[in-house]
Amino acid sequence: MLLDNNRRNPAGILPSEITPQSVFADRRLFLQTAGLAAAGLLLPGQSRATQTTLAYQKTAYGKEETLTSLEDVTSYNNYYEFGTGKSDPAREASLFKPTPWAIKIEGAVKQAKTLSLEQLMKLAPLEERIYRMRCVEGWSMVIPWVGLPLKALIDWAQPTGNAKYVVFISANDPQTMPGARMPILDWPYVEGLRMDEAMQPLTLLAVGLYGKVLPNQNGAPVRLVVPWKYGFKGGKAITSIRFVEHMPQTTWMKAGPREYGFYANVNPQVDHPRWTQSSEKPIGGGLFGGRVKTRMFNGYDEVGQLYSGMDLKKYF
Amino acid sequence: MQLPGSISPAQSISYAKIVAWLAAFIPLLRLFYLGFTDQLGANPVEFVERSTGTWALVFLLISLAITPIRNLSGQAWWIALRRLLGLWMFAYACLHVLAYVWLDYMFDWPDIVKDIVKHPYVLVGASALLLTIPLAATSNQRAIRQLKRRWKTLHQLVYLVAVLALLHFWWLVKKDVTEPAIYILCFVLLMALRWPHWFSKK
């Protein structure tokens, strides 16, 4: 037995001594992360900050609004791929690698292609837009996003006449996203817009906030922002954009068809079956800040014409 | 007979009560500490609502654990802690409701009434609180003496309160039901531990 074993395995390595693939992969990830962390320690804070600063133009969007603090915007997040707690994303997203990044453009387009993050950021000048964000859970923030209109990407992608809807598919990497290892939602996260909603000038592909590249917990490197819809419509860490003919089933529609519709327009008249949507709690108001009334389309009245003649109670 | 330097059973029960009372006070002190040092996070109102609600549920379950603990350990003195724990449950439940009507809704009664009647999880939670009021009100010795056998029947309402409170938690969670499921499991376990005792009484 012993001799036989040695012949097949001249080095005499016990099976138990061989590092399993998963541990090996984890170790590589650990070494990379440790390396990054060490590099971060060596770099002076200032040069790291200048690295992440974006060049952008200011715009008039939301310039009268009071911003939610950077601290709150980056510590209170819904990003289930990193866990279902509000503070999970800020804590768990550090292993996630937003660069290098490529977005697949597929479906009903002249030609399927892939676009790097750098290419995306050159499709149109980056602009800062201050948008209100209303979460379906009943709280809201005001966030200075940096990004470009989704329209710029759609024009570049050249969709065909069959493209009636746009689907956004988010990153799904169980290695770096602990929440994606759990069957809380049907991964990957899928969101979608009707073509005219996608082309609406307000619809933004954000690559930054507060003048810097997006933090991982806010959807780095690129996310969708649709300010007149509930926040969950804004898919984060987008890996592919697909043009389709039929209305897609989004992740939340699958998770709760009675509670989450495709449109998900902010609408104080249509309650979530379980809680009120008529008012909201602005984040940053402290213990005694109270609530404010929620506005139709989150106050972005100009989008109303997209839905003229539609029963928004039925198409919630 | 008492040895010098040792404590009597009555004294040790008093000490146990003091320790339990002080321990029950800690979550509230913690809230005040976090509040005054600005550590309640981006949504402090939600934090206070969640925290007080969770502790009300925890004290409800702990007070429901007393009977099985007594039965399993054979030590009757555990019962002496039950009223104190039940009253702390009531206190945290009241703070929970206070956080809701004050911090969350700023006493906007029309909106509060709408919220309660329109949304089952709020209605169920409000019912649970209403049902704890007669329990807290009859928790004194005089009520026990006056109500006699009916006192025990009345206080069986606590099981209904627990079911409503758990339902309240289950329904308010958006998607991830892990946390309410853990509390439901504890409740089921505590109920299951009562079975053998009920059978032996018959």
Overview of the structural elements:
The complex is a heterodimer of chains A (316) and B (202). Chain A is α+β, with helices and mostly antiparallel strands and 316 residues long. Chain A has a single domain (4-307), classed as Oxidoreductase, molybdopterin-binding domain (Sulfite Oxidase, Chain A, domain 2). Helix content of chain A is 22%, strand content 20%. In chain A, the strands form two sheets. In chain A, strands 3, 4, 7, 8, 9, 11 and 12 form a seven-stranded mixed β-sheet that branches. Chain B has ten helices and no strands. In chain B, helix 2 (44-73) runs antiparallel to helix 3 and helix 2 runs parallel beside helix 9. The interface between A and B is medium-sized, with 29 and 28 residues.
Layout of SSEs?
The complex is a heterodimer of chains A (316) and B (202).
Chain A: H1 2-8, H2 21-42, H3 45-52, H4 70-73, H5 88-92, E1 102-107, E2 113-116, H6 117-121, E3 127-134, E4 139-149, H7 150-157, E5 165-170, E6 190-194, H8 195-199, E7 204-209, E8 212-213, E9 223-225, E10 238-244, H9 251-255, E11 279-282, E12 292-293
Parallel strand pairs in A: 1-10, 4-11
Antiparallel strand pairs in A: 1-2, 3-4, 4-7, 5-6, 5-10, 7-8, 7-9, 11-12
Chain B: H1 9-36, H2 44-73, H3 82-104, H4 109-118, H5 120-137, H6 141-147, H7 149-155, H8 157-172, H9 178-192, H10 195-201
CATH topology group of chain A: Sulfite Oxidase, Chain A, domain 2
The CATH architecture designation of chain A is Alpha-Beta Complex
How many domains would you count in the coordinates of chain A? 1
The low-pLDDT segments of chain A are: 1-8, 35-50
Number of helices of chain A: 9
At the first level of CATH, the class of chain A is: Alpha Beta
SSE class of chain B = mainly alpha
- The averaged pLDDT of chain A comes out at 89
Largest sheet of chain A: 7 strands, mixed
Shape of chain B: globular
Whole-number mean pLDDT of chain B:
93
Number of domains of chain B: 1
Helix-strand string of chain A: HHHHHEEHEEHEEHEEEEHEE
Rg over CA atoms of chain B:
19 Å
Q: Kindly name the structural category of chain A.
A: alpha+beta
Q: Span between N and C termini of chain B?
A: 37 Å
As a percent range, the share of strand residues of chain B is under 5%
Task: Give the amount of beta strand of chain A, in percent.
Answer: 15-25%
Oligomer: heterodimer
Fraction of helical residues of chain A: 10-25%
